[in-house]
Amino acid sequence: MYDALFNHIELKSGRTLADNERDVIMHAFHQKRIRKGEYFLREGDVCKYIGFIVKGSARMFTVDEKGHEHIIRFGLESWWISDHESLVNLTPSTYFIEMLEDSELLIISLPGARELRHKSRCFNLTVSVLDKFQAIAMQKRIHAAIGMTAEEKYSDLLATYPEFLERFPMNMIASYLGLSPETLSRIRKNAIHK
Amino acid sequence: MYDALFNHIELKSGRTLADNERDVIMHAFHQKRIRKGEYFLREGDVCKYIGFIVKGSARMFTVDEKGHEHIIRFGLESWWISDHESLVNLTPSTYFIEMLEDSELLIISLPGARELRHKSRCFNLTVSVLDKFQAIAMQKRIHAAIGMTAEEKYSDLLATYPEFLERFPMNMIASYLGLSPETLSRIRKNAIHK
DNA sequence: CGTTTGCTTGAATTCTGTCAAAGCAGGTGG
DNA sequence: CCACCTGCTTTGACAGAATTCAAGCAAACG
Q: Does A7 touch chain B (CB under 8 A)?
């Protein structure tokens, strides 16, 4: 269960974890199972935990006045999920985070994570690295969203996150790209002949 | 010149700067003036500095194959500019950063910034706070880009960054929102009657 | 088996971009 | 002081792109 987390931290921090550091990290997290279709976070609730996905997948999305869902981001194994805004400001979230498969998570509270960053240099490094990576990824996504046609967005996704297409249904991919499912279907049809 | 920076750090970190800490910070930065229309960073160059805007404004944008410009973000007084991706990875940037007015900047290298984070607790706090703020703002922007109609994007901008409309020409606002200047013009025309 | 869910297709509609042209400042030089 | 730029914004007409609505199909599931 915790091995996935240890591997992830060693990979991102570029360091090896000593046994005592593993202990510290292990005790800072709690295990949590969430079944397919159930929620890690609901709109209106304050986000209390950061979750590390050991197994399973998730989507973070909003629902607008017309009842349409917009997927802000996905989560897969070794990804972190939470609503940072709600977590930091202790405000009700405007997002849902739903698990798309039966999932196993390791969760930690914000104070817990802050404490752990002081106790474990590797964990601290990992968080820094991920924050940077996240910022760069988001900037690229903004670029895609404002500057690309539907077709370009799709082939960009194909190049960047090919695993998404195997793990998530097309209507969610469409929502993630800001397209209607029908438009995405037509794009894929054309793309085959190239 | 440095007062704007000190005020900004005190505001964001929520602490008061002691005189010796001001000295440390001051010596970590260099002054730089860039005239209207000139570049802080060019596509293909490696970004060497992080810039704090004391006076002036900037836009960060890409140019696609068709020659169209897409504005990723703006910069105003007390905002920071740089291409994080290029800065951290030492790779050629895919962005331009152009000053839109005669500007005064305080610049610092990445190693310089890292050193300063160790030397000044206030500066370190400021960077952390801004990173979080940035991440939240970018998530909102993604939400706007994939989930809102052109009209909603405009009124969202009106609510979030009203100062943009006074400081930047409409064709740039349009580019920032991912719209054509003509579409934005028509939206604004309709919006008056509401 | 019947139901559900996800994906595709078609036709009509709405929205947005493109192209071309004209209006409207502010600034400059004669 | 005026004529002439030049950069920015607005308009109109048209073409193209994407959404919506409706229907059909196939695989998955109880």
A: no
- pTM confidence score: 0.92
CATH 2.60.120.10 corresponds to the domain B3-128: yes
In chain B, residues with a C-beta closer than 8 Å to the C-beta of A134 are 135
Report in angstroms the alpha-carbon separations of A85 from A70, A110, B13, B147, B153.
Answer: 17, 12, 18, 19, 20
Q: How far is CA A167 from CA A104, A141, A170, B87, in A?
A: 16, 19, 10, 33
Sheet holding A30-34, edge to edge: A30-34, A103-109, A49-55, A80-81
As given in the structure block, the two tokens for residue B124 are 């370190």
Q: In angstroms, rounded to a whole number, what is the distance separating the alpha carbons of residues B33 and B12?
A: 25
> Is some CB atom of chain A closer than 8 A to the CB atom of B178?
yes
Residue numbers in A near B84 (CB within 8 A)? 132, 135-136, 139
What pLDDT, in 10s, does the model give residues A103-137?
999 999 999 999 999 999 999 999 999 999 999 99
Residue type, B143: H
pLDDT tens by residue, A65-112: 778 899 999 999 999 999 999 999 999 999 999 999 999 999 999 999
Given CB atoms, is A85 within the 8 Å cutoff of chain B?
yes
As a CATH number, domain A3-132 is 2.60.120.10
A154's tokens: 């799709």
Domain regions of chain A by residue span: 3-132, 148-194
Q: What is the mean pLDDT of chain A?
A: 94
